[in-house]
Design goal:
Length: 241
């Protein structure tokens, strides 16, 4: 569940946030390796990352050029760009759906997003770690259909003209082939296997229209991470989100 902050990062970071919103869990550190496959059969891309989590629920995902730090208690996420030495703080949306008193309510969306399906995959063993799996299926959003065109009134019938006989001619051209039917939108499917003991993801497989990505995270430590890991490093410029 580590992530490059690009392309498929959004999908897996979504599940990382879900892990962080849960009650406090044991601290841990994991080394992660990912393999991404773009659609079309191109060569897979390899990447590595590291993931820390504190006993208070804070989480940090490191890649060679960027980091994501999430703090549910502070309701904020910090994005670090190590190449430009820039930090960006993004507020987390409140978990409660209640609307503050006196505030205006937003109008309801015309069409709700398709609900996510969650399937329990049971328990298994991965590299000696007891894990429990879940499959998340997010259907692709359907494109809105155009309203039907108004019907035109029937035209008056014209008198029939007698047909003149013509010599038959050989057919030299064929009718054009009908265009292929559009493919159905591909859903996003994520299979997450979480350590029963550490409550951290060990194996994650994500398949979507962007391709597929498989990530394996090997737990390396259960020590409490240093608090400075979840803070903006000295010398980084704060950029507005």
């Amino acid at each position: 569940m580590r992530r490059r902050i690009c392309r498929n990062a959004g999908v897996i970071h979504f599940f990382a946030v879900g892990q962080m919103s849960q009650p406090p869990t044991p601290p841990s550190c994991s080394e992660c390796a990912s393999k991404s496959q773009a659609p079309g059969g191109s060569a897979p891309a390899q990447s590595s990352s590291r993931m820390w989590r504190s006993s208070t629920g804070k989480m940090r995902i490191d890649t060679p050029s960027a980091s994501i730090i999430s703090s549910p208690a502070d309701q904020k996420t910090i994005l670090l760009d190590h190449l430009k030495k820039v930090a960006m703080v993004i507020p987390m949306p409140p978990t409660s759906g209640a609307t503050p008193s006196g505030s205006a309510k937003m109008p309801a969306a015309p069409a709700p997003a398709p609900p996510m399906q969650i399937q329990d995959l049971g328990k298994s063993l991965i590299e000696g770690h007891e894990v429990e799996g879940k499959r998340y299926v997010l259907p692709a959003a359907q494109k809105p259909q155009a309203p039907p065109m108004p019907k035109m009134p029937p035209l008056p019938q014209m008198p029939k003209v007698p047909q003149m006989s013509q010599p038959s001619q050989p057919q030299t051209s064929q009718l054009p082939k009908a265009p292929p039917l559009p493919k159905a939108p591909q859903p996003t499917v994520a299979e997450v296997w979480t350590s029963v003991k550490l409550k951290t993801p060990v194996l994650t497989k994500v398949t979507s229209a962007l391709g597929s990505q498989t990530t394996y995270c090997k737990p390396t430590s259960t020590d409490e991470p240093h608090p400075s890991l979840f803070e903006i490093p000295p010398g980084y410029k704060l950029k507005s989100s």
